[in-house]
Amino acid sequence: MASVSFPRYHDTLGGKLCYEVLKSKRKEYYDFISSQPKIASLLYAMDRAESKEDIENMIKNNDYLIFDRYISSNFIHQGGKISDDKERENLISFLSYLEYEEFKLPKPDITFFLYLPTEIAMKNKEEQRLKDENIKMDAGEDDPVYLENSNKSGLWCVEKYGWHQINCFDDTKQKQKTPEEVLEKILKVLAL
Asked: What's 2-190's CATH class?
């Protein structure tokens, strides 16, 4: 089993550009969170296209490849900037064509949406920042409206595209599920 996380901030030109607009000291100048979704998506798509050979090698040499944020993340985050369902569908069609057809990136066999309520996600990020002052939050992680819209877009994609939603917050216990509990849910869906 192998895994890869995107953006690859230090490995590709696209990843470095994502870092510049999301995490650098100059991130405020770019206003990337408010940028036009198609244009914003191109940096992430570029990062993945540059990673294609690495992805293909990981697929070839492993039984499973887990993507931590892949093309579907663009659907969620850039789709969250669009309130009209038809416009969001058009964006997702464009992104699917660009990355799967033009760039020939592999399609995932299954997509999981790990759902965490926005207020819990923001609290977690703040706790991380307090524990380690070197952690750099990206522009979206500091914006509750952006995060909430991304969450709504993710839930919409679950319904529209048949993704598997994994709830990462236990409402009855009022606490976040452990990584082991989340993994257990994923393995159950995969029947492993």
From this structure: alpha beta
